[in-house]
Amino acid sequence: MLILSHAAANTEQLIKSVRNGDQVAFATLYDNYSPALYGVVSQIVKSDAVAEDVIQDAFVNIWKKFHSYDSAKGTIFTWMLNIARNKAIDSLRKTKRMGEVEIQDSASNVGIRDSRSTQLNENTIGVRALVEKLQPEQQVILEYIYFQGYTQQEVSDELNVPLGTVKSRVRIAMRELRKVFKTTLLFWI
Amino acid sequence: MDIKDYISSGVLESFVLGIASEQERREIECLSSIYPEIQQSLDELSEVMESFAYTLATEPPAHLKTKILEAIVDEAQEPLLQPLNEVKPTPTQQEVQPAAMTVSKPNRPWLAAASLAALVALTVVFFINQNNQQQELIALQEKVNTSEQFNTELNDLNSWLAHSRTKKIQLKGTENQPEAEVAVFWNDLTQDVAFKVGNLPALASDKDYQLWAIVDGKPTDMGVMDYKNALAEIVQGGKVAGAQAFAITIEPKGGSKNPTLTAMVVVGNV
After folding, report:
1. Which residues of A touch B89 (CB under 8 A)?
2. How confident is the model at residue A128 (pLDDT cuts 50, 70, 90)?
3. What share of chain B has pLDDT > 70, as a percent?
4. Quick check: A82 and B96 CB within 8 A?
5. How confident is the model at residue A129, as a pLDDT?
6. Residue in chain A lying closest to B28 (CA)
7. How far apart are CA B270 and CA B268, in angstroms?
8. Predicted pLDDT of residue B226
9. Which residues sit opposite A95 in a β-bridge?
10. DSSP 3-state helix, strand, coil percentages of chain A (rounded to 5)?
């Protein structure tokens, strides 16, 4: 607990410094959170090159908009995660639109596919263990919504499942994830 | 609204996953600031997503950090839109979600100062009002007193005028002032004299009308007159016995010991 509160105090100080335009503090913020952000973004865009662009875009945005971060609304990590994830999903949608135009036969599309499979292989050990604890239908929901940025209505249309069912699956998936993390945390402590 | 139902409705999960509608987002922004239970649920769900993100953590290539730090050197941080009335620009893309939303708070010190000023103003107005009312009450009381006194005087005057021994003497204009007209009342019993101005020309400010009673062929001073008074007026301290006639002359301000006969305007015999 002592370590945790110390970390919280450090984060608070870090936020204050970045707010004052401290670029060294921002570098520390980058060190602390970029691996998680990069991991999530990579899972979404399925390409190292695109992930790098998205992460750069996201961090520049985080720097510029830093004054709009409100600690009363949530942690700095959640705030940054949302920015990065939204950028990644925007990028994914753009790529998808382009892909539809190019009708799947271009080399770039194949490239993305390849890089996607590489990413999955690198990252899936932890995730798979985790996600496997969820029911397959919840795993699918999580994939569509969290990694592809589908709305619940889009998932409903895509899977041909009633909207109410999608909503309850989302709820259950989140509850299950929560259970998983609570147990994992207990193991770590 | 039942908070528990709201929390279990799944809308918070949508929010945390970034798939809540714009309306739902605004609603949650608002409700989470009111109900700690909602904020707590949001925090717990966010924590789940944070843990999930940590499990995906991958070290980004080293050159990315250098690139980003170089990129922000020339980028100024945007100030938070603080003034309440300022219109927030609509985000161009599906920008920053839950945590990034900020609600500008009303300027409370200003409000407090304004409230205090209003209170002070109200108090002052109240006291001024009360003071005014008190002064008005005094003035009104004075009016009532005056009125009562006047009423008594008038009743007395009426009784006196109606007295069988009170005579009305009509004073007519002389050649000097043919149009002038004054009524004089005299009671030979009480010896009081009163007059009522019918028509007397206005005088220069250094002149006065003076009333004389003629007794045994000699003028007796009855004092200067308030000729502008439209009502009948009893001459104070001007008792006269054995009056044969009454006359009014124009005299220097304050009156004369002896009448200036050339300046006589009205005269009437008893």
Report:
1. none
2. low
3. 89
4. yes
5. 65
6. A73
7. 7
8. 86
9. none
10. 85, 0, 15
In terms of phi and psi (left: phi > 0; alpha: psi -120 to 50; beta: otherwise), the region of A104 is left
How much is the average pLDDT of A16-25? 92
Whether the per-residue pLDDT at A4 is higher than 60: the answer is no
CA distances from A107 to A92, A100, A112, B19, B221 (A): 17, 14, 9, 32, 135
Q: Are strands B207-215 and B243-252 parallel, antiparallel or unpaired?
A: antiparallel
Q: What are the Cα distances from residue B121, in Å, to A54, A107, B19, B77, B127?
A: 59, 78, 51, 43, 10
Q: Which residues of chain A are within 8 Å of residue B54 when distances are taken between CB atoms?
A: 36
CB-based contact A169:A126 (threshold 8 Å): no
> How sure is the predictor about A183, in pLDDT bands with cuts at 50, 70 and 90?
low
pLDDT of the residue at A102: 46
**Chain A contacts in chain B segment 3-42 (CB below 8 A):** 8, 10, 13-14, 16-19, 29, 32-33, 42
Whether B55 sits inside 8 A of A170 (CB atoms) is no
Q: Cβ B46–A78 below 8 Å, yes or no?
A: yes
Q: What single-letter DSSP state applies at residue A66?
A: G
